[in-house]
Specification:
The chain is α/β, with parallel strands linked by helices. The protein has seven helices and five strands, in the order H-E-H-E-H-E-H-H-H-H-E-E. It has a five-stranded mixed beta sheet with strand order 2-1-3-4-5, with helices on one face. Strand 1, helix 2 and strand 2 form a beta-alpha-beta unit. The longest helix has 14 residues. It is globular and about 50 Å long.
């Protein structure tokens, strides 16, 4: 049985038993916050528990390294949609210690890309199109600096209202302890 088959089998039972009822809420976040955090598997349950969040409290965006890399990319667009359409009035960027992005090496990834069958020709096409894959796949050396950079990217966005605080935190993926890097209220 495939992973998808297992998921669909479980889902049928989940729906038939009306397990979804305990998660019912609206699309608007009760705590009026949008969180950008890492896709790290250790944070799936730990981060909401460490922050006392339940289903319906916040909007959570998960991206590698909790990085807001472009002022007009999909992460920033999602933040703005949360603010203007979904009543979020605070933003919180949460990175974490021991992040895979801190050890990311562009050359290593590009080698793996080729090993998986992507041709040098396709890679060259991207490069000729102006995409710097070495920069795009570059990680960071300090999670605190990365969080600061993402907070600045969001906080200085021309479409973000100035009354929306943007916070930056780092979570320990083993204990859940949160450290403040930037307090957006100050």
């Amino acid at each position: 049985m495939t992973q998808l088959d297992n998921i669909l089998e479980y889902n049928k039972e989940f729906v038939d038993k009306k397990e979804y009822e305990k998660y019912e809420t609206t699309k608007l976040p009760d705590k009026r916050m949008v969180i950008v955090t890492c896709m790290d598997t250790r944070l799936i349950e730990l981060l909401p528990k460490a922050m006392n969040l339940k289903n319906g409290d916040v909007k959570i965006l998960k991206v590698a390294g909790a990085i807001v890399s472009h002022p007009f990319g999909s992460v920033m667009r999602s933040i703005l949609v949360a603010v203007y359409e979904l009543n979020a009035d605070e933003v919180c960027i949460i990175g974490h210690h021991d992040c895979g992005m801190s050890a990311l090496n562009a050359d290593s990834i590009l080698h793996k890309v080729k090993d998986r069958g992507v041709t040098q020709g396709k890679i060259d096409t991207l490069k000729y199109s102006g995409i710097d894959l070495e920069e795009w796949f570059q990680g960071f050396s300090s999670v605190e600096d990365s969080v600061r950079h993402s907070v600045e990217m969001v906080d200085n966005h021309p479409l973000l209202p100035k009354d929306v605080p943007v916070h930056g935190l780092v979570i320990n993926p083993e204990t859940g302890k949160l450290d403040v890097v930037i307090n957006g209220y100050k």
